[in-house]
Sequence to fold (229 residues):
Amino acid sequence: DIVLTQSPALAVSLGQRATISCRASQSVSISRYNLMHWYQQKPGQQPKLLIYRASNLASGIPARFSGSGSGTDFTLTINPVQADDIATYYCQQSRESPFTFGSGTKLEIK
Amino acid sequence: QIQLVQSGPELKKPGESVKISCKASGYTFTDYAMHWVKQAPGKGLKWMGWINTYTGKPTYADDFKGRFVFSLEASASTANLQISNLKNEDTATYFCARFSLDYGGYRYWGQGVMVTVSS
Fold:
């Protein structure tokens, strides 16, 4: 199975940049497709797709969210961070079954 | 608009069974696979597997082989998850999510069903 590693938590001041990383135990890229996706989850809610295929902004998601990376190293950036962004962020790979998730990074306000 | 609406919360005893549903609307049900995700209280997301809504063939992650069954009522655009011989560790919220090859991830999710297993 592909293991995705995320830091448990990140504290950022409002208006600053948040950088959340996700490292895969093996490449999740096929040809030009980087099959890594990012979700935001707030308590009591279902996850929301933010970024698909590493760098594509999902419909309706504010442009302060962006994604980058390829191979095994991926990053979700939120800039600037707003109060509404307090949530847990998960990466997920769909390169191969099982479609594993990272353990999640909880974004906190400093 | 596209929606996935799941059934209501369940309270069960160990050893019992539960069947939860995920009703899709706003698109052609058989055009997209349905995936299932477990989230234990206070924990992260765990991928359970998926069902091909065109053929009905299910695929299970290793931890969900045996007591878990994915099924369809295609005429009702509904996917089901049945868990038999419930254990305390099955206490969790279960989400259905529509998989899109275009995205490679899940743009649409059900609201989740909380299953509580307690004697």
About this structure: The mean pLDDT of chain B is 97.
